[in-house]
Amino acid sequence: MRSTLLALPFIGSALAARPFVNEPATGIEELFDSLPAGNLVPLNQIVALHDFDYAARKFLIPANYTYYRNGAGGEWSYRNNLEVFQRYRLRPRVMLDVTGVEATLPTTILGYNFSAPFFICPASRAANGNPTEVERGLVEGAAAGGILYNQAGYSDLSVEEVGEIAAKNNQTFFRQIYLTGNDTTDKTAFNRAKAAGAKAIIWTVDSAADGVRHRAARYSMGSANGGFSLQTWGEYKKYKTWTDLPIVLKGIQTVEDAQEAVANGADAIWLSNHGGRQVDGSPSSLEVALEIHQEAPEVFKQIEVYADGGVRYGSDVLKLLALGVRAVGLGRPFMYANVYGTEGVKHLIKLLKNEIINDAGNAGIADLHNISPRAINWNVNHWYS
What we know:
The chain has a single domain, classed as TIM Barrel (Alpha-Beta Barrel), CATH 3.20.20.70. Helices cover about 40% and strands about 10% of the residues. It is built from 16 helices and 12 strands. It has helices at about 1-15, 30, 50-60, 60-70, 75-85, 135-145, 160-170, 185-195, 215-220, 235-240, 255-265, 285-295, 300, 315-325, 330-335, 340-360, and strands at about 90, 105-110, 110-115, 120, 150, 175, 200-205, 245-250, 270, 305-310, 325-330, 375. An 8-stranded parallel beta barrel has the order 4-5-6-7-8-9-10-11, surrounded by 6 helices. A two-stranded antiparallel ribbon has the order 1-12. The protein has a two-stranded antiparallel sheet with strand order 2-3. Helix 8 links the parallel strand 6 (about 175) and strand 7 (about 200-205). The longest helix has 21 residues, at about 340-360. The chain is globular, with a radius of gyration of 21 Å. The chain starts with a helix and ends in an 8-residue tail after the last strand. This is (S)-2-hydroxy-acid oxidase. InterPro entries: Aldolase_TIM, Alpha-hydoxy_acid_DH_FMN, FMN-dep_DH, FMN_HAD, FMN_hydac_DH_AS. Its cofactor is FMN.
C-alpha cells in the first residue's frame, strides 16, 4: 500500500506533463515552417486533414484563425475531442473479402442520398478564412463531392444565396437556426429556410448560455450568440407546429437526452459538444455514442443519430459508425480547407473518402453499413503518455 500511495503523485505528474499535439508530426512542418506567414502551403502538399489546420494557421491572421480554433475554458474538451478516438483500438480481422467496401460508402440522411457518411457541420463566418468565396467554397465543394452541407446560422451568405447555389447544383442542404425567443422573428426564419430550399432545420440545443472562451476573448472573437436561450421540449413541440421540415436536435450529450428526444418524437439527433466551445468538461460525441450503445442501444434503431467533434481520420469515422451513428460531421477541418476555396473543400472530401475505405479494408470491414461494434475494443481505454 505504501509504495502505491507514493507512486500516485508521480502518476499524476506524468499525466499532467503529457504534451498536447494539435497536429501530429507527419513532416509538413519540416517542409513549410520556413514559409512566410500569409502564404499558403500548396494544395497538392496537403495529404491529411490535419494539414489544413497547419496551413490555415500559417496563412490567416491570428484573430481569424482563433475564431475557428478556440475552445471553452482551458480547452480540455477540445483536446479530448481530438484524443479520445485513439483511446479505443481497432480489432482488425483478416482473410475477409473487403474488395467491395467502396460501394458501401454512400448513405442516406433523412432520406436524402449522399456519396459518403460524413458532412459539413454548420460553422459561422466563412469570411474569416476566405473573404472572397465565403461559404460558396463550402457549398460548391460539398456539391462536387456529393456530401451534405449544413449552413450555419451566422453565415456571411444569406439562406437565399445558399439556396440559389444549391439549386444550380441540384444539391440538398440543411439550415441551422439560432432562435431568438421572438415567435414572429423565429417563424420568419423557419419560413425563409424552407422557401430557400433547405430540407431540414438544425436546432443547436447545447448553447443555452454563452460559451466561456478565453482564447477567443484575447482577440475579441467571442461566441456567435449571447445571453440565455429558452430550450425545452415544450418549445420544440411548438416549433414543430411551425414547419413541416424535419428539426434535427444538435448538441445531445447524454443517453437520457437521447431517450427524451425519442420520447418527444424528434426527427433526428446530433451528438455534439459544439466542438468543445461551450462548456469545458463536456463529453466527446464518441463517449456519448458509447454511453448510448451501452445503456440504450435501441436508440440507434429508433432515430437517426449523427455525431461530430474531433474527427480527423477515416478510422475516427469508422469508430462512430460502429456504435450506430449514421453520419459524421466535420467543422473546423472544412473551415480550414475553405481558405483554398472550393478546390480545398473538394480535396478534403477526396482525402477522407480514401481514408475511410482503406482503413475499413485494413480493419477487415467489408460493409460500412454493417460495422460490428466488435470491430473496436471498447473494453480498454488506452491513454497515451
